[in-house]
Each structure stands twice: as structure tokens, then as C-alpha cells.
Write a structure and sequence with these properties.
13 helices, 20 strands, six-stranded mixed β-sheet, seven-stranded mixed β-sheet, alpha/beta, 22% strand
Length: 450
């Protein structure tokens, strides 16, 4: 077991941190899959409004890789297929039955998993329409089932603000989690890496077998799988690394042990705009309204599916994203602060990244959507460098992307990156530059260039 100490980064002290208790909510009556959650796919519908589906039924497939289909996270009737510009599929909404039915697959005994081999494991996951659970680096897109990954990474630690405490969410799930890890072992000739927080007391993580265990300590983004890959087994040109969310390891384990797709997840709802900030038992694609009904301090909020740094803006009529397990709520504010340029106040009334490190202040702050400034020329004062725990020069990489210099982008390590790893750089940037979106645009350029 190796230990990784992350020194760069920052834990944002935002109020509304979810407690390690479950908050009871009304169960969602509709669920949705949103194709825009998935990069570089061309979805083709397999259902239409009024069709009946079961949990696990295929809803659409990727025209670029027809074997990859998406499973319905609910059983009932296809209520609506929402189309956007040029008839692009935006949402597939399913009205749930009171008694849902599931597609049944042949279960596998635990002892037999280790002898299945990659072909049988791949075929079973594809047959269950759950291949989108597996993503790859570079590009953070859905994995190509024909690739042979050098390694597979699972992060058992969420460091993002307001995110699920995996120590709490994975308790008492050793058997199914271990089965999922054993399945992943069959998909790669390399190693499966599991990383968790150094002081965890979750036996599901600490007792894992047949994987390389690593402990990690430090501020966000230490929980990002990209940071862990960089420090444990860095990506190299012409190689592929696969990644799987910790809760999706359980989903895969359930498929093999029980023969069903169980869309259940543990999510969090939190932020300054939320009354009861806690963990919630829900499912993939659940309605956001169920999280926030009678649970908001005010009506004017920014609702985010995902964490506050990398999530996507939504609303009460929206649905939680396929890979998201957090609903974050921040009050909207357009008020200009009196004498804001002078920054009167102290470390208890003013949020400061410097104070967080130097004074170790633990006060939390009720953030709003106010940006405290607008886009301005770059100020290269190492603000980005202090937040990025990777051996990469973010300033030079940013400039190479703007110049569309492909050779320079690749040489500076762009393909090892993902925008979530640079989210803190955007947060602290004195020039208000969204460096994360620039990283994604660079990756898109590289992908289009082939």
C-alpha cells in the first residue's frame, strides 16, 4: 500500500456541507437519461413516447459504436422525448410504475467471476446496457470496449465541495463492491487501483482484495481520479486508462451477482441555499425537484447537478446527471458590494484562500453566485500553479490551446488532463478566466484532429 500526500489545492469552506445522515425525501416519480451527459457520441433512439420499458431496457445507442446502449434507470412508460435544435435528443423522460419490472440476466456465482475472462465480462456488461459506466483517459469519454487498458482506476474518496462521503455511502457493501472490483480485474491485463482517504474507517474500502490499494491525503482536488493517476501510474502516449466511479463498481457487482441493473445511488444535497443538507438514497436520473421540495431557504437560486466547481446548471424541472451524485444550491446575487474594491473586513467576514492556509480558519461562508469582478487580462502570479497538484505548467498550456498549437498542447501534457482537475484554478483566478472550459476546448480540438 502506497501513500500519496497532496500539498497543492484547496478545500472551499462553503456552508451547507451534507451531514453523514440520510434525509428522507419523496421518491421520484419520473427519471431521465440525458445524452448530453456523454461526450463524443451520436445517439439513436430505440424508444418513442408511449413505449413501455423495464429497468435495464435499452433507450438509445451510439451510432459510432452500435454495441454501446444506455439502460433505462426506471420501469414504466416513456413519458416524453425532448428534442432540441436539429432534433438533437435532450432528454428521455420515463414515468415510473408503482411496481417496476427489471430486465433479468443470468447471475454469476462470486467464485466464478475470476475465471470469466475479458470477453465474457465485456459481453455481459454490453448486454445489460451498462458499458457507459466505464470511462477512459484521455478525453474522459466512454471507454472503447475493444481497447486493452493499461490500468483501471477507482477513486474511493470524494474531495469536491458538498460531495458524497464515500466512507459513509459504502458502508456494509463489502461483498458486492468486491465483486465489482473482481469484474474490473477481468477487463485489464494491467492493474486495478483503488485509492481512499488515509484516515478512512470504511471496511468496504480497506478490506478490498485483488487490487492495488493506495491512501491519499490533502485538499481538493486530491479525490479527482486524474490527480491520482498522475501520482500513481501516469498516463503515457498511445495508452488508455479506464476509470469507474466507486458507486458504479457496486452497480457492476450487482449485475453479476444478482443478474439485474440496480440504479440506486447515494447522493447529497447541500449548499447555502438548502435547509437540510444531508445524504439521500435515490437513483440515477432522479428528478431534482424531489431533492429540493420544501428544502430551500429562498426561491432565487442557482441549482447545479454535480459539485459547485464542475457541475451543470439545472432547475427544479431537471434531472440529476448520469455521473452526478450531488445537487448543489447557491443563492443568486447581482448586488454590487459597497467599497468592494477596497475589501474591508477580516478573515471571518471575507473569504480568502490565503487565510485558509496561513490562519487555518475553519469558518464557513454562505457563497452566492456573485463573481466579484469580470473577465480581465491575465495576471500571471502563480494562482493557477498553487492549485494544481500536477507536474504541468497551466499558464503555458492555456496559451498553447488559445494558439491551437497541437504539438505544444500535447507536449505540455494536455491529454493527461481533464477540466475537473483545473476547476480550482478557475475558482481562484484573479482574472476570472474559466481555465477548465479552455482545457475542455483543447481536448475537443485534439479529438477532432484525430
Amino acid at each position: 500500500m502506497t501513500h500519496i500526500k497532496i500539498r497543492k489545492g484547496h478545500n472551499i469552506r462553503i456552508s451547507g456541507t451534507p451531514i453523514d445522515e440520510y434525509y428522507n425525501i419523496e421518491q421520484t416519480k419520473t427519471v431521465s437519461i440525458q445524452p448530453h451527459d456523454f461526450r463524443y457520441i451520436k445517439p439513436k433512439l430505440l424508444v418513442k413516447t408511449g413505449d413501455r420499458v423495464e429497468i435495464g431496457s435499452p433507450l438509445f445507442f451510439d451510432k459510432l459504436q452500435p454495441d454501446i446502449k444506455w439502460a433505462s434507470p426506471g420501469g414504466g412508460e416513456v413519458k416524453e422525448v425532448v428534442l432540441g435544435e436539429r432534433r438533437a435528443i435532450q432528454k428521455i423522460i420515463i414515468q415510473l410504475d408503482e411496481e417496476e419490472k427489471s430486465v433479468i440476466h443470468s447471475p454469476i456465482k462470486y467464485q466464478e467471476i475470476s475465471s470469466l475472462g475479458k470477453t465474457k465480462v465485456t459481453d455481459k456488461i454490453l448486454e445489460a446496457n451498462l458499458w457507459p459506466l466505464i470511462r477512459q483517459r484521455p478525453y474522459n469519454k466512454i471507454a472503447d470496449q475493444n481497447d486493452n487498458p493499461r490500468a483501471i482506476f477507482v477513486s474511493g474518496f470524494n474531495s469536491a465541495p458538498l460531495s458524497v462521503n464515500l466512507d459513509f455511502a459504502l458502508r456494509h457493501k463489502q461483498s458486492v463492491f468486491q465483486a465489482g472490483l473482481d469484474v474490473l480485474n477481468q477487463l485489464s491485463d494491467g492493474n486495478v487501483h483503488l485509492t481512499f482517504e488515509a484516515d478512512t474507517n470504511c471496511e468496504t474500502l480497506t478490506s478490498a482484495r485483488n487490487v492495488n490499494l493506495h491512501t491519499i491525503d490533502g485538499p481538493h482536488p486530491s479525490g479527482n481520479v486524474g490527480i491520482q493517476i498522475h501520482h500513481i501510474d501516469p498516463w503515457k502516449p498511445n495508452e488508455v486508462i479506464w476509470v469507474v466511479n466507486a458507486q458504479h463498481v457496486i452497480t457492476i457487482g450487482d449485475l453479476f451477482l444478482k443478474g439485474i441493473y440496480d440504479p440506486s445511488i447515494i447522493a447529497t444535497v447541500g449548499g447555502p441555499g438548502v435547509k437540510n443538507c444531508a445524504h439521500i438514497k435515490t437513483r440515477t436520473g432522479a428528478s431534482i425537484e424531489t431533492f429540493l421540495s420544501d428544502n430551500l431557504h429562498i426561491d432565487d437560486n442557482r441549482i447545479i447537478s454535480g459539485d459547485i466547481l464542475t457541475g451543470k446548471e439545472s432547475d427544479l424541472n431537471g434531472y440529476i446527471g448520469y455521473y452526478d451524485t450531488t445537487i448543489s444550491v447557491v443563492p443568486n446575487s447581482n448586488d454590487r458590494e459597497f467599497l468592494g474594491l477596497l475589501k474591508p473586513g477580516n478573515d471571518k467576514t471575507r473569504y480568502s484562500v490565503t487565510n485558509a492556509f496561513v490562519l487555518k480558519n475553519k469558518t464557513t461562508f454562505s457563497f452566492t453566485t456573485q463573481q466579484s469582478g469580470s473577465l480581465r487580462p491575465m495576471v500571471p502570479i502563480n494562482a493557477w500553479e498553487n492549485m494544481l497538484p500536477m507536474d504541468i505548467y497551466p499558464n503555458a498550456l492555456y496559451r498553447s490551446i488559445l494558439a491551437e498549437d497541437f504539438e505544444e498542447m500535447e507536449g505540455l501534457g494536455l491529454l493527461e488532463c481533464d477540466e475537473e482537475d483545473f476547476a480550482l484554478c478557475s475558482f481562484v483566478c484573479p482574472s476570472k478566466i474559466d481555465i477548465g472550459s479552455v482545457i475542455r476546448s483543447g481536448l475537443d480540438l485534439m479529438k477532432d484532429d484525430g
